[in-house]
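Record copied across here:
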Amino acid sequence: MGYGMFSLGALALLLLALAFAWVVLGVHALLLGRMPGNWLQRHVRQPRLWGAGALLMVVSWNAESLSLLAVGVGLVALGHVMKSQ
């Protein structure tokens, strides 16, 4: 019983840390219009769109809304593929 509770707690802590990192990346992209790091800068073509989608995905988790989640995933995907004009 002790090991199972430890692993669930560790998993919850890991998911919380990942969610926090996702929010920080979303806010950074939305406000500054660029992505941190070389890899993200090369792969995300529309950072503001990506950031809006990332934050919408987090909001959808709290609101328990699958439609908001779908829109957020779509915005993140569009942020990867749309070319700037």
Observations:
- The chain has a mean pLDDT of 89.
